[in-house]
Amino acid sequence: MSQVSQLEPSQINLEDINPNWEWNRPISAPGRMAVDFEERVDFRRLHKYRLGRAQKALEESDLGAILCFDNNNIRYLTSCVIGEWARDKICRYALLTGNSNPYLWDFGSAASHHRLYAPWLENDHCLAGMLGLRGSVNADAGFFKRAAKEIVELLRKEGVADMPLGVDIVEPPMLFALQAEGLDVRDVQQVMLNARQIKSMDEIVLLNMSASMVDGVYHLIAENLKPGMRENELVALANKFLYDNGSDDVEAINAVSGERCSPHPHNFTDRMYRPGDQAFFDVIQSYMGYRTCYYRTLNVGSYTPEQKDAYQKAREWIDNAIELVKPGLTTDKIAEVWPRAEEFGFASEMEAFGLQFGHGLGLALHERPIISRLVSLDNPFELQEGMVFALETYCPAADGNGAARIEEEVIVTADGCRIITLFPSKELFIANAY
């Protein structure tokens, strides 16, 4: 049994695992191989940090245990993943009581694989599980009931069966089965978000490595963005580049151009690029689970004054937000520097949500903080050192021919922030200029 799996929860010292950040040094984006000649990401240290953060958040809550079906929370607790296909199946689950290391129920043979290749988990905590595959197997088959009884037995063993059980996402039959066992089921997503909001330096390096992959994607896009190419072709090129370079999940790539730019449709089509088109892209992918949300706007060969003006406004709005970022700032102050929905063509903040926007990044695309005029003005949230989030702005061109979309990923440092999205964006980028 590994040293990590032998640790009792109370033995995990977060300060020892993640000492103070040294912001005077560059944040590295090392190669992906393990080497003996320099320190890179320490994945066992990463596991101990994440587990320690979750245990601390559980201890500070009124819950006795955490039951997770959200794959991002499962990975945070167990450092185990079995692929993108599991994202929407709600078929895997993990239990953390605070009195022991995590239990993991995985899909069929994955459990026995973990017992061989995941020594940081205790062998008898790696179990096979089967529920309903989102209703494909009827609840009458009894799998939900059997799982609930197994969970209750473990809660009794760990001495927390009389305390509330926190659950993040759940199929209704599973919820009903847990309640039928007499459990007080409550929401645990806020507890897990508490744990996940402050990143260790290993997490920050992984986020930086993930962003560096998208830097390369945009260079590839810039080389290929020309008349005759189509949105879907650039999406395909970007997907290949990312998987070739180690991405474990290309969640989505938006490719939006020309008349499709306003309003923003959040997708891609087979539209062919034309001379003078304004085009923006969003690359959402992950490296070792750590995600990017990374917009850039590029023009095809040339630009109009209206397109350039839209870009300058979007750049001004994002720069005004970045300048404010520091520990102790509340998110309403960032939202206040962004234009009201009516100022860029929308009837309400709900309709404009996601356009002047900020959101935390980590194992999920949307973590804390969420920043927008819709949310933040009445519900401000305080920034802390070690948070990582994206800021994004949008401005349609006045003549209706395009729109500008810019996004930067920032790390909150001791006295400000550090930008890790490095493809040029201070000026409107003209690809293959005429």
Automatic annotation (TrEMBL):
One of the entry's Gene Ontology molecular-function terms is:
aminopeptidase activity
Tell me the first and last residues of the signal peptide. Answer: none
Q: Which UniProt keywords apply?
A: Aminopeptidase, Hydrolase, Protease
Pfam families registered for this protein in UniProt: Peptidase_M24 (PF00557)
* Domain of life per record: Bacteria
Q: Which segments constitute the Peptidase M24 domain?
A: 211-414
Recorded protein name is Aminopeptidase P family protein
The species this protein belongs to is SAR324 cluster bacterium
